[in-house]
Amino acid sequence: MVRRYCVPLLVLLSTGCSPVYQTDYTFTPPESSEGRACVFQCENTKLQCQQLQQSRYDLCLQRAELAYQNCEARKIYRYDYDKGEAKCVENCFCYRESCSVDTTSCDAQHRACYQTCGGGVSSRTYCVSNCEEVGGVGAAPGGALQ
Q1: Phi and psi (nearest 5°) for 10?
Q2: How many C-beta neighbours within 10 Å does residue 124 have?
Q3: Burial of residue 73 (number of CB atoms within 10 Å: 0-12, 13-18, 19+)
Q4: Residue 99 to residue 64: CA distance in whole angstroms
Q5: DSSP states of 3-14 as a string?
Q6: pLDDT in tens, 14-23
Q7: Phi/psi of residue 60, each to 5°?
Q8: What residue segments make up the domains of the chain, in order of their start?
Q9: First to last CA, the chain
């Protein structure tokens, strides 16, 4: 009986301990004034993209709150005279929708734009947690230290 639960438990525990990587980017500006002006446009486009993502997040939060409040308003309670309290009997489980901001597409578009303008983008990926399996903190994917 114990053996049957050990293997799934070990698998579950080991998946939570996978290495976590971070990538840092270094930008080298273009040499020409036209390239630098182009990069300035890339920065504006990135900012607009991030503002759009933030607006989507804010709207998601508003919708989630409205849906939650509507759910709460639909709950039906009955008073239990024996216990002296009201108890929910219908539509009792409400939750708030989860919202998040994801600007990874903005960042990827910005890097591509920067390179199109003649700038250079280099990346460095390294392990930041649970790195023991891959050679310690600072190891790149595949185990090499950077």
Answers
A1: -65, -40
A2: 12
A3: exposed
A4: 8
A5: HHHHHHHHHHHH
A6: 456 889 999 9
A7: -60, -45
A8: 17-29+120-146, 33-117
A9: 46
* 47 CB neighbour count, 10 Å cutoff: 12
Can you name the residues that pair with 22 across neighbouring β-strands? 126
The whole-model pTM stands at 0.67
Q: Which pair of tokens denotes residue 98?
A: 């989860």
Measured CA to CA in angstroms, residue 124 lies from 27, 111, 128, 145 at distances of: 12, 14, 12, 11
The residues that bridge with 78 in the sheet, in sequence order, are 87
Q: Which residues pair with 127 in a beta bridge?
A: 21
Percentage helix, strand, coil for the chain under 3-state DSSP, each rounded to 5:
50, 20, 30
What are the backbone angles phi and psi of residue 135, rounded to the nearest 5°? 110, 10
Q: Give the confidence band of 101 by pLDDT, cuts at 50, 70, 90.
A: very high
Nearest to 118 by CA among 22, 40, 19: 40
